[in-house]
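We close this part of the discussion by returning to an individual protein. The sequence in question and its structure tokens are set out directly beneath this paragraph:
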Amino acid sequence: MLGRAKLWASMCWFEAQRFRAYPLELVAGILGRIAEFTLYSTFWITVAHFTAPGTINPVDIIGYYMIITGLSPFFYTGLGIAGMTADMIKSGELNQTLIRPINPILHPWAMRTGRNAVDIGYGVVQVAIGMIITGGVQAEALPYLLPVLFNTAAINAAFNIAVGALSFYMTTAADLRMRLC
């Protein structure tokens, strides 16, 4: 089991190496996330300024926004993994994956994790800052938070696997993926 985990980690690392070849992509990804946060913060600060005092607390809204958007890269919201599976089926790369000693279902996840390394790293920082802004997570909230996080990951994984599996039967799985989103 430890050998397979090391294999998946090395697959993620290999995919993340593209940022060494294209450092501007790394800079653009970070600047894009900072611009998104700046616009969102500016909006809520402006709304709070022009409403009745005490009705809107922009610090809480911004903190919760940072936590939610920081967690989204971890759950692979969207169907990027299903699209990768469809592309692997169309190109024949899945045949090459099946003869290797790796799990063909987790292989696209490892590749996607490496390709989204900037988003995941920025997400960790964003969640930490959001928790500091909002005052952290209280111990009483953990029994509610952990099942929600687990269910989110499980539902997204099941949805990606189901749409990816449809690629075996449909020639235009990418079109199906776009229609479902």
